[in-house]
Amino acid sequence: MNDLYAAAEVTLTGTESIQVAVIDNTSGATMLSCTINSVTRSHCENAGSSGPANPGDLIEVKVTGTARQLSSCRAIEVTFRY
To answer: What is the model's pTM?
Structure first.
């Protein structure tokens, strides 16, 4: 898996942050992650590579942050290459 990019529909300030992680749901391992914060404002990216998941493994995108950031954000677009 390569090149995680996430864009939020909000602009973060101060100590606000939203974490985006691509997880191999079968093993529980985080494959790639990035954090949207006041520096990146409304997006984050991780140009790294995690290696492949095993055949048949399920992949999920997990988005976490405080209730205020997530409740004001109606959409987060996440892309990655697998």
So the answer is: 0.87
